[in-house]
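User: If only I could read backbone structure tokens as easily as an amino acid sequence. Underneath my words sits a plain record pairing an amino acid chain with its backbone structure tokens. This is the protein in question:
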Amino acid sequence: HEVIFEHANNIEGPWHEYEFAYKPGNVNYSLPMAGPYLPRLDFQFYDVAGSTISKQTWIYAFALRLLNNESSVRKLLSARNFPHKPPKFVRATLFEYHYTPWAEHNNLAYWTRHSVGEFLPPCSVDDATLQARLKALKIPLKYNIPPVTNTLLKDALLFIRNQTTLIEGSFFVFTFLALGFAIIATNRRRD
């Protein structure tokens, strides 16, 4: 099972999926190799799909961040099909996924899926139910980011973040592992 978040500007649709880099979503995309890289948000949805929203309360805060189109959340998702402006509505649907049978391998789809049910009903920023849930969980609707005192460190970290997002996660980790082994091997030859 997979929980798929969608966004729309009208409650009647059309609905568009938010795509994640490392979890099933679009049936036409295969999954990239992730290990030993651990995409935490994508991996967190593994627990969500086998649970209920009442046990996964962070989903409400995630929905609010999607509704506000926050850049910190956008950076955790795939850039494909991401709205440029904040959507009016988001929802989450539970799907059951299966690999496409080998007999249908000439089909372009890697997966087949069907809807199992609603996980999070359509909601908006002004939705009373969403606001009540967030208030009960003591999650602020708006939060102030404290001012940065060390701008040099901030700029350096942003530069590193922007450079590392250009490389796929597992390739990035394997590059560092290979570099580490190369350093160890060259140091042993000197001894």
